[in-house]
Amino acid sequence: MALGMRQAAKRVAIGAALALALSVPAKAETLADIRAELGQLSAQIQSLRGELVASGAQGLQAAGGASALQRMDAMEAELTRLTARTEALSNRVEQVVKDGTNRVGDLEFRICEMEPGCDISAVGQAQPLGGAAPAAITAPAPSAVGSGSGALAMNEQADFDRAKAVLDQGDFRAAADLFKTFAETYPGGPLTDDAAYLRGDALNKAGDVPNAARAWLDAFSAAPEGPRAADNLLELGKALGALGQQSEACATLVEVPARFPSSGAAAQVGAAKAALGCP
After folding, report:
1. Which are the contacts of 51, defined by CB distance < 8 A and separation ≥ 6?
2. pTM for the full model?
3. Which of 12, 19, 59, 171 holds its CA 20 to 30 A away from the CA of 41?
4. Helix H segments across the chain?
């Protein structure tokens, strides 16, 4: 019985140590991880309570008396509070993602309406912002002349430089096609974000503003936190303004400093809004 009481007291002490770590679970990386760890801790405390009650009055006394149960009550109350906060945060994140995705989808339909020959019924559902990465990113890497990752990196840079040179030479349509091919050939590569942004730039310079707007929208949707995200959003807003969609353009421009306050694109929003007469 003495051994059982010591074990019960030891377990209660361990439970108290666990409670100290509740605010920042060590291994949690996502909200789902946090919920799972909170559930595990709750189960452990319930198990400790059962063992303590089963040990009788002597076991309870060895664990610290009535204060042991009070401490466990406090732990459970804290677990309940943290679980509720986690659920509230999860719901908030899901709502933000839903609203953002709906807005991207609405812009896709509006742009399609302005494109000659665009079939609105063929416009698919927008990829959830921040959701699963496109399947293309996990596709096998393209083959290249030579062997090893060095040859692939060299070809990737050379292909990008070739498309950029065509853009600089003023052959905008050809450059847009090359950047599109590049993004399809090297999905998820270190230069893919730049290629997607420059494809929109090439189309815009070619006078194809609707497709330029779509290119920037697609680029932003694919990488809403990427290195070119702020630039894509800025150019999308300006393109929408050029297409006569002032309300959507102004709303899009407002998002640039809200999402990327320290970006170079954010510093250009004021001039862009003034040019469009945004409030």
Report:
1. 7, 8, 11
2. 0.52
3. 59
4. 2-20, 31-54, 56-62, 66-114, 149-168, 172-185, 192-205, 209-222, 229-242, 246-259, 264-276
